[in-house]
Amino acid sequence: MKKILLLILLSSLVISCNTKPEKIESEGLSSEEKIDSTKIKTLFNSALIDGKSYEWLRDLTQNIGGRLSGSPEAAKAVLWGEKLMKEVGLDSVWLQHVMVPHWVRGEKEVATYATNSIQKKVPICALGFSVATPNSGILAEVLEVTSLAEAEALGEKMNGKIVFFNRPFDNTLINTFSAYGGCVDQRVQGAAVCGKFGAKGVIVRSMTNAVDDFPHTGTMSYGDLPQEQHIPTAAISSSAANILSEDLKENPNLKFYFKQSCETLPDAPSFNVVGEIRGTETPQNIFVVGGHLDSWDLGEGAHDDGAGVVQSLEVAYLFKKNNIKPKNTIRIVFFMNEENGTRGAKKYAELAKLNKENHIGGLESDAGGHTPRGFSIDANSVNTKLLQSWKTLLSPYGLHDLDKGGSGADISPLKEENVTLVGYRPDSQRYFDYHHTSRDTFDKVNKRELELGSASMASIVYLMDKYLYNNTLVKL
Amino acid sequence: MKKILLLILLSSLVISCNTKPEKIESEGLSSEEKIDSTKIKTLFNSALIDGKSYEWLRDLTQNIGGRLSGSPEAAKAVLWGEKLMKEVGLDSVWLQHVMVPHWVRGEKEVATYATNSIQKKVPICALGFSVATPNSGILAEVLEVTSLAEAEALGEKMNGKIVFFNRPFDNTLINTFSAYGGCVDQRVQGAAVCGKFGAKGVIVRSMTNAVDDFPHTGTMSYGDLPQEQHIPTAAISSSAANILSEDLKENPNLKFYFKQSCETLPDAPSFNVVGEIRGTETPQNIFVVGGHLDSWDLGEGAHDDGAGVVQSLEVAYLFKKNNIKPKNTIRIVFFMNEENGTRGAKKYAELAKLNKENHIGGLESDAGGHTPRGFSIDANSVNTKLLQSWKTLLSPYGLHDLDKGGSGADISPLKEENVTLVGYRPDSQRYFDYHHTSRDTFDKVNKRELELGSASMASIVYLMDKYLYNNTLVKL
Description:
Chain A is α/β, with parallel strands linked by helices. Chain A is 36% helix and 24% strand. Chain A folds into 2 domains: 31-103 and 266-473, Aminopeptidase; 106-261, Glucose Oxidase, domain 1, CATH 3.50.30.30.
């Protein structure tokens, strides 16, 4: 009787834990696809058992930390990357010199306002490239708008005011990057629009799906405004944005105060870190795999983009560990300055052209270290179609999304009609909880999710290397 | 020139943020599918804008907390659930009385051992239904095994010893529930196997993919062993298991000490919480949606299974909010005692039979609150095929996995040939970082991921209700 109870207990446990024998289906696969399927399984097993990316990321984020272009941390990260690439045993490793913008945040920013005799502190951070406020800060009335057009229409009315851009993310968009794309113009162009009408400053709602107390930094630009129209601009937390908006309804004349001491120093020397595994058949054909080494200064640059950096290197590590010798040259690049200038990407593309290198394709990881969802494809229609035919091989690993789309800011300067670029696309739901904030730290990255990403990337690089002949994907 | 630079900057940002206009493809859909596609989009929009599940979960986990069957917290959770169902405005709400096991942990457990004169503390927790150690604890040599068979083969050699089960998760399995299923026999049956040979106690490596310091509790059973052979059994953290294993190689005679004071009290009264929206056409046909209200005591029962509870109720909330009137009766059930006995599930099925209720289908959410991946289907082949044909409608929301598999421990007692059961399957990668530990807390649940789960569930319930006629899914 008790044995029966035990059996019932166990069977209900088995149901509850949804165990099913996990096997990768090989039915209906061609013999070539079976080989590929086995190789991909090997890459995943290897990443999940012997992966190094998580410990590399720990080292980068916890021992170096945030590494904004031009900072001492960014310089340390370059040496870190060079040393690590050598340790992994790439055939050659070198640095590409590049001058980068050097913006510094200065003292911690302060913002506050009073309403109904209550003084409220506002979580705030300067946006990258913003100028400082005067030493005494700025105090002014606030005009709230939800778009650049609305701001533009205010015209001279904003003279002497602080303009507050408060269009939130569209949370109904399933891909959170689409919501970001729908809001980020406020952050990038807000000050350029308002500076010319004599606004005193700009504050922008943080770029996030969440309502919380963390301000999100990010780059902005004054466009072609003359220096004297450059006004200080900062992000405030989404929660503070909601509260301020409510308070403005009740008290439209409240005065907002903020102070920041950031400045743009002269350009500083820095480097892309480059290493490669030379191709065995057509070494002159280069396939680039990369992420960006720089990060914003508020957090540790864990998801953005420490994850992409260590995953890119893990592609090479997994190839070597499993004795996969690529036909084409696989080049790993840790790009510098993606966050505020993409100077590293431009330099890389410029040198590629100058040296008449033949880039046949590339893969970028710069969308966080979360669980894999797929790749976005920027390629001609023939190559896109063949890439999409690999769905059968990739879907057992959760890689279902193989849609046309952008690849990434660092490899897209390599784009030409016959260059096949792909962007690694992990799940995006949590990404803007951390992006450009003090919360983008190592503890937010899950080891398995990171490793699954490395393996996903290694798998698509394996397939692309195997089937890319010069610039054409060929079905064997 | 600067305007050009700004344009370049913006275009590179746009590339980097991978924005693409998000639209749900309607091309190639039948007119009926277009209606469904629109309805599903409405449900997702509604969950992501007006969803209540996250605040409900905050309340359940932070104001009540862990709620093991028989505990005062479980009793509070029943009242909480009843009140909430009424607030949501279900047509009727009631409690189903059920007697549940009442096991209590007692004082915090202690474990330690010395090796090379170094005293090591071991993170440990008693397993559910385990007996206590003597007041003075247990001190004994340790035999390490990796399977029940290996333990069984030791036979009398384990007399007076502590048996240490140390088979780790197979981390190469992509679905972590498969890895769990491959290990959990050690936890459930370990003590039953070893008690009969006179072992003094059993310690089991925690059920997790991770190597960390958190012991994972969970249910165990002594099977048909006589009382005097019931030996204390506990889980130790995976990190401690690795270290102990190493230490045993060097010092096989080391003595392990542990002490726990748990006990099983007489069965206690408790309840399933049940509420329903009556069907407009065939109210006698019932479709169940549920999760379990009880949880382990160490954490807050956030992912396991507070998430499933609030998502189930949110299905009803979303139906009402969007004026969707189901044809069949949709019954929401907060099951009691899934964790150690599934008495609530059995009672529910027993009453359904007794009252000659006609259950046509069910949906369970008990795999955590992470980002949606799909559903597993436990149905006859005709219904399975039709369910799988909804992939086109569901995949825009990341719901790609529509494989045959178990539904869940709480609804599976309703299983008959013509009852269509599905289990909600979110991403599983992080789940066993938290499962049954002190880390299963509210802060580990992401608002959007939870809401996307509610909407996923509401969508499949909408489809199943629409196309289920009696027990058959009918393509219109």
